[in-house]
C-alpha cells in the first residue's frame, strides 16, 4: 500500500507520522518521501512497516522514490530542435 493512501485511510497526518518515528523527522521530509523526491533509509522504512502493522512495506516505500522527481512534470516538455539545414 502506498504511504499516502495509508495516511488518508487512517486519517493520520504527515506530521503525526513524522512524530511517531524514532528519531522523529519533519512533516516536510514525509512530504518529500510521498512525492518521491527523497529516499528514506531502511530503519525508517521498517519503522513505518511496524507503525502500519504491515500495511505499508519497505518495498512499497522503495517504489515511491522517483530519481527525477525534482523535475517539474507539470511543465510541457520543450520541443526538440529541428536539425539545421546546411547548404551543401
Automatic annotation (TrEMBL):
Which residue numbers delimit the HTH cro/C1-type domain? 5-50
**Residues making up the signal peptide according to the UniProt record:** none
UniProt superkingdom: Bacteria
Q: Which SUPFAM superfamilies match?
A: lambda repressor-like DNA-binding domains
Example of a GO MF term = DNA binding
Q: Which InterPro entries match?
A: Cro/C1-type_HTH, Lambda_DNA-bd_dom_sf
User: Pfam families annotated for this entry?
Assistant: HTH_3 (PF01381)
- The protein depicted here goes by the name HTH cro/C1-type domain-containing protein
